[in-house]
Design brief:
Rossmann fold; 17 strands; globular; alpha/beta; SH3 type barrels; 358 residues; Elongation Factor Tu (Ef-tu), domain 3
Length: 358
């Protein structure tokens, strides 16, 4: 069987390709070109292409560079900028998985004759024996589990995908790279968004949507004006640094009011919420719930799971109530639901709720 591997030039995707080659599959490497320009972004740029090509040559597999700059700009970058302009904090990695990797790239793999697409994600796919449904499970390495970023996957996508690293630890993956003498063995792990390699969000947003940036008031919940902000795109829920105001106690961003172009600040206690509403939901192996259910939930990557009650509201929306208040529930981020190590589904956070609002 021919399998396509999404090769970013990093250790994880390189080991993925190597493991599949060792197992006897016909492997081809696909590297996505997604950067809009050399000046504005990095990620899958020239060095990544060169690194991926070097690994492919080492393994003796065919390698292709696919130009996804247009779909990435439309589905990921444009959404990223729009969400910030609305006072929300998006997660572009989730959008990339949904529309680019397991959308456009999966289709490209099929066009090249590959029956499956493999990636270096630390997650697992299992097929239920009883009903043939595919389940998305956490990676065995809890410190690297990436199931949170994959909650949008459909049954069709899961059935055509592979995560060979799902049972491995990061340490084991690096040892394999060393044993195979892969040329990327010493490449550092990126912790930045691929199209903002210097992690300078303000500069990037100013470049793309600077025309919508307007100063406005920094206020407390009582409506008292405490200072002026540079523009709502530069702030996120839970932020403490960079507010430019002094107070008797540390102040945090507790809400962003786009209608009033205002940043609302308060004490650390005020950053905690008891619930949220979410929409744009995806349920991986089950129908949309028609009654309240108790599960665990994450409200950001590597967030400690919390007990919740999820109540359907209709129109692909839910209300989520936490057993214990959670800090910095952030509109635009994802809430992902778990039953043990299985991802039930998830959605986009629309609004955080405070005590007494649920």
């Amino acid at each position: 069987m021919k399998i396509a591997v999404a090769m970013s030039g990093g250790v994880d995707s390189s080991v993925t390709a190597a493991l599949l080659k060792e197992e006897g599959y016909e492997v081809i490497g696909l590297t996505m070109q997604i950067r809009p320009s050399d000046e504005l972004s990095g990620g899958y740029g020239h060095s990544a292409v060169a690194d991926a090509r070097g690994v492919a040559e080492r393994l003796g597999i065919a390698h292709y560079v696919v130009d996804f700059r247009d779909v990435f700009a439309r589905k990921v970058i444009a959404h990223f900028c729009q969400e910030y302009s609305l006072g929300r904090t998006p997660n572009p990695c989730i959008r990339c998985n949904q529309f680019v990797k397991f959308g456009a790239l999966l289709k490209k793999a099929e066009e090249l004759g590959a029956g499956l697409l493999a990636t270096g994600h630390y997650a697992r796919i299992e097929k239920e024996a009883t009903n043939g449904k595919y389940l998305l499970r956490k990676g065995s390495d809890c410190s690297k589990d990436q199931s949170y970023f994959l909650y949008t996957m459909t049954q069709e996508q899961l059935g055509r995908s592979m995560f060979p690293l799902g049972e491995l630890t990061k340490e084991r993956v690096r040892r394999i790279a060393e044993e195979l003498e892969l040329p990327v063995v010493n490449r550092p792990e990126s912790r930045e968004i691929c199209f903002i390699p210097d992690n300078n969000y303000p500069r990037f947003l100013q470049e793309y949507i600077g025309d919508v940036v307007k100063p406005g008031p920094i206020m407390d919940r009582q409506g008292n004006i405490l200072g002026e902000h540079r523009g709502i795109i530069f702030y996120t829920i839970g932020q403490r640094r960079g507010l430019g105001i002094s107070a008797r106690e540390p102040l945090y961003v507790v809400a962003i009011n786009r209608e009033r172009n205002a940043i609302i600040v308060g004490s650390k206690k005020e950053t905690y919420g008891t619930g949220l509403t979410a929409s744009e939901l995806n349920w991986i192996a089950a129908e949309e719930p028609n009654r309240p259910m108790r599960v665990k939930a994450r409200i950001r990557y590597l967030h400690r799971e919390a007990g919740v009650t999820v109540t359907p509201l209709g129109e692909n929306k839910v209300q989520v109530k936490f057993e214990e208040p959670q800090m910095a529930i952030t509109p635009g981020q994802a809430v992902v639901f778990y039953d043990g190590d299985t991802v039930i589904g998830g959605g986009s956070i629309d609004e955080a709720r405070q005590e007494g609002e649920l």
